[in-house]
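User: Assemble these into one structure.

Assistant: Restating your components, then the assembled model:
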Amino acid sequence: DVKVTQSSRYLVKRTGEKVFLECVQDMDHENMFWYRQDPGLGLRLIYFSYDVKMKEKGDIPEGYSVSREKKERFSLILESASTNQTSMYLCASSLRTTPYEQYFGPGTRLTVT
Amino acid sequence: GEDVEQSLFLSVREGDSSVINCTYTDSSSTYLYWYKQEPGAGLQLLTYIFSNMDMKQDQRLTVLLNKKDKHLSLRIADTQTGDSAIYFCAESIGGYSTLTFGKGTMLLVSP
């Protein structure tokens, strides 16, 4: 079974703090993704990576950056957290070949106060 | 443009069939997917269908695809209270491995 793990289930940070969310997958997937999920807005893609050290912006990259130094690990960084970044963050991974099915981690609920 | 639409809510009684509908706008969709999200959890892939298929069945799940109308449905037979969750429809387009998700349909199953 594919396993995608995220470093924290719940996180509370203060405005202005630097926040790291980490995601690890154990199935040698080339692609990794970061989404945020908000009520009424569904899932929105923040960034994705198709290889080590490669990254592509998604639909809402502003205020975020990412790092992928190893194939199994993809980090999401909030350089200076703001209250509007309070959300559920979901990581996913997939192979680069069809049918591209993505496997998700359990999510991190981040609250910025 | 890419857009996936779903109704927001569906309520059924235990033992009934549930049908969750989805429409998409991009005719170049190659794969379409159904995911399930239980409260406080990540998304779990239920099934997917290739765009040249009309139907796919997997135990209690039946996926129907009408490519002409760009309409996808998920039928759950003999719905159980454990099926209560949010169901997301998603599409991949062309040769890209990113997915576009709908906003999700909340299914509530009452005893």
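Chain B touches chain A at residues 30-31, 33, 35, 40-45, 48, 50, 88, 92, 97-99, 101-104 (CB under 8 Å).
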